[in-house]
Amino acid sequence: MGMFDYITNKLYCPFCGELQEENDFQTKSFVCGLIGIDIDEIKEDESCAIYSTCRKCKKHIHLLIEGWR
């Protein structure tokens, strides 16, 4: 098993709309040092693939977050 970083925001499942808890989403797009990342910290020219499994519908979630300002 490798290390990852995690997203500190609460995000919604795109399938059922259930609000997921803080730190439910993981990413390997940054330093992979088990650091918390707020999606507002993603810079303009960065993108971040995040992953989770919904607590309610149990579907696998894979999202691409692109930085913007």
Brief synopsis:
The protein has 69 residues and is mainly β. 0% of the residues lie in helices and 32% in strands.
Structure characterization notes:
- This protein is mainly β and 69 residues long.
- The protein has one domain.
- The protein has no helices and 5 strands.
- A 5-stranded mixed sheet has the order 3-1-2-4-5, with no helix packed on it.
Instruction: Walk across the major sheet and give the strand order.
Output: 3-1-2-4-5
Rg estimate, integer Å = 12 Å
Count up the domains: 1
Largest sheet: 5 strands, mixed
Secondary structure tally: strands: 5
Strand content: 25-35%
Percent of residues in helices? under 10%
- Give the low-confidence spans: none
Give, in order, the helices and strands. EEEEE
Mean pLDDT level: 90
Terminus-to-terminus distance: 34 Å
Class based on secondary structure composition and strand pairing: mainly beta
Shape: globular
Q: Keyphrases for this structure?
A:
mainly beta; five-stranded mixed beta sheet; globular; single chain; 5 strands; 32% strand; 69 residues
Topology, element by element:
Elements: E1 5-7, E2 25-27, E3 36-37, E4 47-53, E5 60-66
Parallel strand pairs: 1-3
Antiparallel strand pairs: 1-2, 2-4, 4-5
